[in-house]
Amino acid sequence: MKLTVTDLSVARGGAPVLSGVSFAVNAGSVLVLRGPNGIGKTTLLRTLAGLQPALSGTVDVPVDTVAYASHADGIKAQLTVTENLAFWADVHGTTMPDSVFGAFDLDDLRTRLAGTLSAGQKRRLGLARLGVIGRKVLFLDEPTVSLDGFSVKMFANWLRDVHLAHGGIAVIATHVDLGIDAPELDLTPFRSTAHASGGSDEAFL
Amino acid sequence: MIALLRRDLTLAVRAGGGFGLGLAFFLIVVVLVPFGVGPEAAVLSRIAPGILWVAALLAALLSLDRIFALDFEDGTLPLLATSPLPLEGVALIKGVAHWITTGLPLTLAAPALGFLLNLEMSAYVWLLASLALGTPALSMIGTFGAALTVGLRRGGLLMSLLVLPLYVPTLIFGAEAVRRGALGLDATTPLLMLAGITLGSFALLPFAASSALRVNLR
User: Fold this and answer.
1) CA B158, CA B12: separation in Å to the nearest integer?
2) Which residue is closest to B86 within chain A, CA to CA?
3) Which chain B residues touch A73 with a CB distance below 8 Å?
4) Residue A164 lies in a domain
């Protein structure tokens, strides 16, 4: 399995932000996206995940292997930690591995309502979702926001020892050092200069 | 898809889920009408079919903007969109969940409230039948409206404006079925029309709603 991106151009709110992005990621490896705020990391990840169409270029990745995680975790405050994870396992037709609670330090929180968790604990729950859905290609947008150093290390360990070790792929936009030996892609050179190049189909923007 | 339905129903009955919202509104409107209209039994019994149906429609409308807005705010919607569930299925399940939490309780509570409005004895069976056949259409049309306006701030007003005209046929045929029942006439035709609207909504609107969601998720 391999993720290949060829000459991809993406737009946010109708205006092109990145153009000519090309890279390839092999099974078992990570690509870290770098770049200043507003460069289009989130837009690129959303396009890769298929949530919005690309202006041009292709994303070559097996269908139904992709998962996306953003700033918002998709956690329901009225459900317990276990219920939240069980829901995503059900939706993806997987069985929830019990090890995931240990991997994200959620063992003591299983029966707590997600609404009563701290920001960092919610983030860990959001990341634990990636461990139950069994998707091979992860597009992660700032996965370590509001995590402490210990939790960042824990997440990096899970990524390396579980996800990548089983042939997974991850593309991560982050500003912190994950402690994983991974190639980095600086998006600054791909900044789109040609504004209003007719890329927008949004008449009202 | 069953997992999504189960989750939505669980969320609805837990604290802050808004399960009783529509039902409480329905109850309040129908209880207040006799105070406003006056106690004459003949007048009440004449307007009962219309009042019951209008109240049911507004009660269904009340909880529509929760259908997708909550999932949109906490980021669940993009995650569902990248999950193996087809978005059409998500829209269908959302409509069904809305009906179970709003339309079904309304239907079951309606006979008791019909009694308050002095509804003719012969109309009760038609009231139940018309609400049972018509409220699913209200939920599914509303789901489509909610999908159109998801992500808009204060989208509730726009959604009401979009959805209300689409509700009119359901209201007309629903109230007509009960009125005919009350007069002892045959109400089969309006009921068949209601059933047609409901089946048509469930056949077509999940596709329309999922297209709207895709655009709104960009």
Assistant:
1) 24
2) A91
3) 74-75
4) yes
Give exposure, B107-142, as e/b (b: 16+ Cβ within 10 Å).
bebbbebbeebbbbeebbebbbbbbbbbbbbbbbbb
- DSSP notation for B121-132: GGGHHHHHHHHH
Number of domains in chain B: 1
Q: Could B82 and A53 be called an inter-chain contact, meaning their C-beta atoms sit closer than 8 Å? A: no
pLDDT, one tens digit per residue, over B146-198 is: 999 988 888 888 999 999 999 999 999 999 999 999 998 988 999 999 999 99
pTM, rounded to two decimals:
0.88
| Residue B7 to residue A87, Cβ atoms within 8 A | yes
Residue A196 lies in a domain: no
Say which residue, A70 or B97, is predicted with more confidence: B97
As for the ipTM of the complex, it is 0.83
Q: Which of B76, B213, B218 to mutate to test the interface with A (most CBs of A within 10 A)?
A: B218
Taking the CA of residue B217 and the nearest CA in chain A, the distance in Å comes to: 7
Q: Would residue A143 count as lying in a domain?
A: yes
- pLDDT, tens digit (0-9, with 9 covering 90-100), for A141-191: 888 888 888 888 888 888 888 888 888 889 999 888 887 878 888 888 888
